[in-house]
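User: Quick one: structure for sequence A, then sequence B.

Assistant: Sequence A:
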Amino acid sequence: MAKRLYVGNLKYTVTSEQLEELFAQFGSVSSAEVLIDRDTGRSRGFGFVEMSNDDQAHAAIETLDGRDHDGRRLTVNEAKPRTRGGNGSGGGYRRGGYDRDF
């Protein structure tokens, strides 16, 4: 069964291809993607890797989590499923903290 991994604290110059190469040493990589900010076109500093084998994914986590890569300490763990809903506002008041009728 495929395992999706979160990879955080990437250097902003790391490409999806480089991310795939980094994880390929542990086994078959189904996909690797560094997320790009749509406004700036720049890396967001994290990405996702999907590996086709659970054992290989666990080996990658054990080896790469906390390891230095290009001067940055990587965070590698199993990706959590996306949750639906929410607009990122944190659920509080969005207009300066005041409760107004508009």
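Sequence B:
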Amino acid sequence: MKDIKSFIKITDNKIKVTNKDALKASIDELISDAVFNQDEEKKKALLRLIIEAAKDINIIPSSIQNFYMEMGKGRHKGFTVPAINIRGLTYDAAKAIFRKANEMSVGAFIFEIARSEIGYTAQRPLEYSAVVLAAAIREGFEGPVFIQGDHFQISGKRYAESQQAEIDYLHGLIKEAIDAEFYNIDIDASTTVDLSKPTVKEQQKPNYTITATLTNYIREIEPEGITVSVGGEIGEIGKSNSTVEELKAFLDGFGETVNKNLTGLSKISVQTGTSHGGVVLPDGTLAQVKIDFEALRKLSDAARKEYGLAGAVQHGASTLPESAFGKFAETETAEVHLATGFQNIIYDSKYMPADFKAEVYEFIKKEFAKEKKENQTEEQFIYSTRKKGFGPFKKKWWGLQAEIKAGIIAELEKRFELLFEKLNVVNTKDIINKSISKTFVRKEIPEALKELL
């Protein structure tokens, strides 16, 4: 690789890009070297180098908070912000997203990764941020980039075993994410809702109490000048549909519990009929899912008009039919989370090498055999488990032949284009730039990075 010092230097303890074109020309190799570097300190230094270089050329990790507060006041409407989880081929997929964003002048979109995905895709927050921002460098995207911790979820099982240990784990994950410049975090304590209690507010009490506690923690550690956008969740995805009564019970309880001197939530995730990954039939195909869009409209209206939030957030939507996506904007859903549909495009692509796919599937059948349920067919088991084939094979995914990746990414790119159109976020670049002020968070330059430069 070209000597980094020929296009990047340290000035006043800050990373400065001295040759933007050289950085862009070298970024493919630089991000690959960072992701797969066996020296952990050097890896972190290279990932930080990429993030700081991106910031220096006006690619800014940002919070969507102010934009969502404006949505809550009715200033922006008629579209739904896509939040995109990338589990595999992350660099190539992110480049495709930025290409479409540039082409269609899209500013309102989010990259995210969930607590569970961080594990099985082997993408810690610092790496995920750096890969996304490297893709922005490569595609010449400028402006705010929203990176989100999705489903920073309380494990119901672990919480039952030790409440404090689980809260401490979430504290650690939140701190790691904010240090990596995730300035948008969705807390999911809906797993603690206790339906045995007599009233809706009592049922939601563990949920809103934990969410308030974690929100207070976020406010304590967020960088100066940044207000992290924090989301809560009232209905566990795949369970019973959420109601306005539940939403009000949660938000009222949250408001009574959270530190009133600090900023609260910007949005609320609800359940209206979807499930993560879709419902898989015995032959491996997906069942048709019916979303209660009228319930979604009512929930969004209540969140916005009575509590000043951007609105409701829908999870588990990526496997819906194309015709459904336009309805999110119509119902003024604030945000929609999309993940498994992209994974399906990758695995089911006509360009996916059969031998590599077979290798991944054999690994899954062997390593995760204990996860197969008694009533599952092999097709259902593979579909529900193949997401775990990204982390162990990350280097092989990354190293697929260029023409193979180009074919798969072209299929993904069509999907990104459709989503941007259907969710009506085309030509949102200007309003995002006006709503989101540039805040450059100062980071200490690691010693290992100083040695490189």
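The first strand starts at residue 8 and ends at 11. The radius of gyration is 21 Å.

User: Thanks, that's what I needed.
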